[in-house]
Design goal:
mainly alpha
């Protein structure tokens, strides 16, 4: 069957271990161990914290025999995550896929190709929603009692949850892309919309009363209302909690009808959008070319700037932390009074506000992991960079410099605004500035080392490098790991030392790690470059 053959090809093309991680897992035991540790550390920490809140929520709901409300969380979270991923991926998977020129002449029905492309996109969505909702489902079955049939129904229905969001938001994604492409700043407009959507989700997630022991209690009313408005949301709960066969059949029937209807409607649209994407627009430019000599570092830096701002998925994933630091800096002054009241809970727990601020800034800096993937983004052109008479050390440090320019000014801006709002002492502000600079430098050079050992030059599009590569995974969690080390040090030293002295020790540790990694790049980068 042609559909199954296409699925096998697409799956191998997008989800093979070699394509995701950049190497065969069997070829390097050390890399495999590091990958396993990063995955367990990252997802384990997230799921434990997430799971604890939902376990406590489930305990309270069970006392009032309302544990079925947990299923509202499952449905709403899965629906929102599906909407978000469809908006990000629909254009690349359905309306403007790169292998259109290869597939179109083949004797394969367009409907078959579209169905296979949709299923490949759904795999990413399934992995996300099953992982995100796992702690909620555990809490539900623990407090309401385990039932194998209910678990089986949950698994089946979760496979159908993304169908309706996919049909609706794929069309919305196409409309946004067509509108934004009419302008010269089309990528920027598309990016602005995505940031607005993501920030909207963030505002919803964090618009809670800080005084609550468990902030999830503040979402109960919204979850109950949202799940009650959508018929499929009601059927989702009735199917799992009450084992209602009619609700189960209705949920699956509507989901399938919407998906098949979507495929039939967009069959011709997909051909037109992909054909129009092949057109090459040429603009007449009469500007006289001017040749200017620049240093090697500046040329590589400028190249990084252009790559960053010309790649939507790159700026969306690695620019979010920068934007949040700027927005947060402004918001701190605007909401100064309410923040001071809310942060009293941390002071009562003997946690310094300066430390909390540094943790938040460190987290946001860690989301700007450009050094961990910038070498990989050279792609098939890496051989050109390698053949130039430029030291590998210079290349890596220039890429690292771009990351520092992208993070440090915005982090210092947020710190400056916070110091005005909360009245930090001058000594603490100076030490916090040193911590931010040394932390960002250490994180950046560690990302460069990661990318040297885990490059990914073979990819179909930049999304594979920015979101799916092992360099991106290790780069992101390496910053969290450094913050964890500092958190342990603060925990043991804060009781016997002043905050200024603890910050000074943290700065010294950052400097030592940075110098060690710098010496490693200086000695080993050239030989590693030759092997790549």
């Amino acid at each position: 069957m042609m559909y199954l053959k296409l699925m096998r090809v697409f799956f191998k093309e997008n989800f093979s271990f070699k394509r995701i991680f950049g190497f065969r897992l069997k070829s390097s035991k050390l890399k495999t161990i590091l990958i396993s540790f990063a995955i367990i550390y990252g997802f384990g920490g997230m799921l434990l914290g997430f799971g604890y809140m939902f376990f406590e929520l489930g305990r309270v709901l069970a006392l009032n025999q309302m544990e079925d409300l947990l299923l509202n969380f499952v449905f709403v979270y899965a629906t929102f995550m599906s909407m978000f991923f469809v908006l990000l991926q629909a254009n690349g998977y359905i309306f403007h896929y790169r292998d259109f020129n290869i597939l179109q002449p083949l004797p394969i029905k367009n409907r078959t190709v579209i169905a296979a492309k949709i299923n490949v996109m759904l795999i990413t969505i399934y992995l996300t929603i099953f992982i995100i909702t796992a702690p909620i489902v555990f809490s539900y079955f623990y407090h309401s009692g385990f039932n194998f049939i209910s678990l089986l129904i949950y698994i089946i229905l979760m496979l159908f949850v993304p169908f309706v969001p996919l049909a609706i938001f794929s069309g919305l994604s196409l409309l946004i892309a067509n509108f934004s492409n009419r302008f010269r700043i089309g990528k920027a407009l598309n990016l602005i919309f995505m940031f607005c959507l993501f920030l909207g989700i963030m505002v919803f997630s964090f618009s809670m009363n800080m005084n609550e022991t468990n902030p999830l209690f503040n979402q109960l009313d919204f979850m109950d209302s949202f799940g009650g408005i959508i018929p499929t949301g009601k059927w989702f709960i009735l199917s799992i909690h009450n084992l209602n066969i009619l609700a189960f059949a209705g949920f699956i029937g509507i989901s399938l009808a919407v998906l098949f209807g979507f495929i039939i409607v967009v069959e011709r649209i997909v051909v037109k959008t992909n054909q129009s994407h092949q057109n090459i627009r040429v603009r007449k430019n009469q500007t006289q070319a001017v040749s200017r000599q620049k240093s090697v570092v500046r040329n590589i830096f400028n190249k990084e700037v252009k790559k960053f701002f010309n790649t939507t998925i790159y700026i969306f994933n690695c620019g979010f932390g920068t934007i949040m630091m700027f927005i947060g800096g402004v918001a701190i002054l605007i909401f100064k009074e309410s923040l001071i009241t809310s942060l009293e809970i941390f002071e009562s727990a003997n946690l310094d506000i300066e430390v909390l601020l540094l943790v938040i800034l460190g987290f946001l800096i860690s989301t700007v992991y450009t050094p961990a993937i910038s070498l990989s983004l050279e792609g098939k052109n890496f051989w050109i960079l390698k053949s130039l008479p430029i030291k590998a050390e210079t290349v890596m440090l220039s890429k690292m410099l771009f990351n520092l320019v992208l993070t440090i000014p915005f982090a210092l801006f947020a710190l400056f605004m916070s110091s005005i709002a909360f009245g930090f002492s001058a000594l603490n502000v100076v030490l916090m500035i040193l911590f931010i600079i040394t932390f960002a430098s250490t994180f950046s050079i560690l990302g460069s080392v990661i990318n040297l050992h885990f490059p990914k030059f073979e990819y179909i599009n930049e999304t594979e490098v920015v979101k799916q590569s092992i360099g991106a995974l290790l780069g992101l969690f390496s910053g969290f790991f450094i913050l964890t080390i500092h958190g342990v040090i603060y925990y043991f030293l804060s009781a016997s030392m002043s905050l200024a002295l603890v910050l000074l020790i943290a700065v010294a540790i950052n400097i030592l790690i940075f110098l060690g990694l710098y010496m490693y790049i200086k000695k080993q980068s050239e030989s590693i470059f030759m092997k790549l």
